[in-house]
From TrEMBL:
GO terms for molecular function: hydrolase activity, acting on carbon-nitrogen (but not peptide) bonds. It holds the Pfam family Polysacc_deac_1. GO terms for cellular component: membrane. This is Polysaccharide deacetylase family protein. InterPro entries: Glyco_hydro/deAcase_b/a-brl, NODB_dom, Polysacc_deacetylase_ArnD.
Length: 344
C-alpha cells in the first residue's frame, strides 16, 4: 500500500461506517487503475522489443548480402540486392571478377596471329576493270608466320579451279586448257580423288598444279584443331599413295571460311593459303549461261589476278575456252600459284 493510501485510511478512522466503505472503494479503485496502467505500458514495450529484434537482423544483413552470394543464389530479397550499392567494395569485387573472365573466354583481347577464332569469310571489293580490288581489312593483320596469297603482280593471271563438288565436263575442261596452252591450279577435295583416281592422273599428266583442298570439304570454323589436321594429313597420305609424291604445300580453305587461329595452324603445317581476287556466283545456275562467267572474269581482269572458278558449274566449263583465249589476247600469261610469295 502506498503512503497516500495509508494516510487516507488514517483520516477515515473518524468517519461513519458508510463513509468508511466509500473511502475503501475509492482506495481499491485507485490501486486497480494503477495496476491496469502498468499492464498497458508493458505491452507496447514488448512490441518495441520485438520490433527492435526484427529490425536488428535487417541492419546486420546489409553487410552480408553484398557478398558474392547473390551471384550464386538468384532468389535474394530485392531489397537485399539493392543494398550492395551502399557498400561498393563488397559488391564490385565479384562483379568485376566475373565480367572480365567471361569477356576473356569468349572474346580474348585480340592481337594478330595469337589464336583468335573470330570467323571470317574471304571477299574482295571490286574496282574498275584493270584495277586491283581492295581486300578484307583482316589481311593487314596477317603476320609473316601466317602464309597467305590472294593476288600477284605484273601481266600474269592465276587460274584456280576448285573441285570440291561435282566433277562435270572433265573432257571439255581439259581440252579447253590444252588447246590454249594453259596450266591451271586445281584445289581438289580428297573424297573426289578417292572416287575418281583417274581424274587426278589426267590432271598431272597435262602438267596442272594440284593443291590440298582438305579430305571432305568441311567448314574449318566449325572444327577442332585435331579435326583440321586430320583433314589435311588424310589428303596428303592419299595423294602420296596414288602418285608416290608429296603434295605441294598450297592450300585453300573450303568456302573461304577461316579465322586467324586456323590460318596460323595451317601455316604451321607448312602450307601457304591461297585466296583470290576474282570469283563468281558459280555455285548456282547462271541467268545468261556461259556469258555470265566470261563477263565476270573479263570485267575484273587485273594484274596478278587470282581467278577462282568451280568445276561444278556447267556454264564455267562452257565458257572456259573463250575466257582463256581472251585473257591471252589482252597480253596476260597464265601462272602457277607456287610462284606467288606471301606478303611480308
Amino acid at each position: 500500500m502506498s503512503t497516500r493510501e495509508y494516510s487516507m485510511m488514517r483520516r477515515g478512522a473518524g468517519m461513519t461506517p458508510i463513509s468508511k466503505s466509500a473511502a475503501l472503494l475509492i482506495v481499491l479503485s485507485v490501486s486497480l487503475i494503477g495496476c491496469a496502467d502498468q499492464s498497458l505500458i508493458a505491452i507496447p514495450s514488448d512490441k518495441r522489443l520485438n520490433a527492435s529484434a526484427t529490425v536488428a537482423p535487417r541492419a546486420t544483413s546489409v553487410p552480408v548480402t553484398p557478398t558474392p552470394k547473390p551471384t550464386h543464389s538468384p532468389i535474394p530479397n530485392p531489397k537485399a540486392t539493392a543494398k550492395p550499392s551502399m557498400s561498393p567494395q563488397a559488391s564490385a569485387v565479384p562483379m568485376a571478377s566475373t565480367i572480365p573472365k567471361t569477356t576473356a573466354s569468349t572474346k580474348p583481347s585480340w592481337q594478330p596471329g595469337t589464336g583468335d577464332r573470330t570467323p571470317f569469310s574471304w571477299y574482295y571489293m571490286k574496282k574498275k576493270t584493270g584495277q586491283v580490288p581492295d581486300f578484307p581489312k583482316e589481311t593487314k593483320s596477317f603476320t609473316a608466320d601466317q602464309k597467305a596469297v590472294w593476288v600477284g603482280s605484273g601481266k600474269k593471271v592465276y587460274l584456280t579451279i576448285d573441285a570440291g563438288g561435282p566433277l562435270i565436263e572433265v573432257d571439255l575442261m581439259l581440252k579447253s586448257l590444252k588447246d590454249n596452252g594453259v596450266k591451271a591450279n586445281f584445289f581438289i577435295s580428297g573424297n573426289n580423288i578417292k572416287k575418281n583416281p583417274d581424274y587426278l592422273k589426267r590432271l598431272l599428266a597435262d602438267g596442272h598444279f594440284i593443291a590440298n583442298h582438305t579430305m571432305t570439304h568441311q567448314d574449318f570454323n566449325k572444327m577442332t584443331d585435331e579435326q583440321i589436321k586430320k583433314e589435311i594429313t588424310d589428303f596428303e597420305e592419299m595423294y602420296k599413295q596414288l602418285t608416290g609424291k608429296e603434295v605441294e604445300k598450297y592450300f585453300r580453305f573450303p568456302f573461304g571460311s577461316y579465322n586467324m587461329h586456323n590460318l596460323s595452324l595451317v601455316s604451321d603445317m607448312g602450307y601457304t593459303s591461297v585466296f583470290w581476287s576474282t570469283a563468281m556466283r558459280d555455285w548456282e545456275p547462271r541467268k545468261n549461261g556461259a556469258d555470265d562467267p566470261y563477263n565476270d572474269i573479263m570485267n575484273n581482269l587485273h594484274e596478278g589476278n587470282v581467278i577462282l572458278m568451280h568445276q561444278g558449274s556447267q556454264e564455267n566449263m562452257e565458257a572456259l575456252d573463250r575466257i582463256c583465249k581472251e585473257i591471252k589476247k589482252k597480253g596476260y600469261e597464265f601462272g602457277l600459284v607456287n610462284e606467288l610469295q606471301p606478303k611480308k
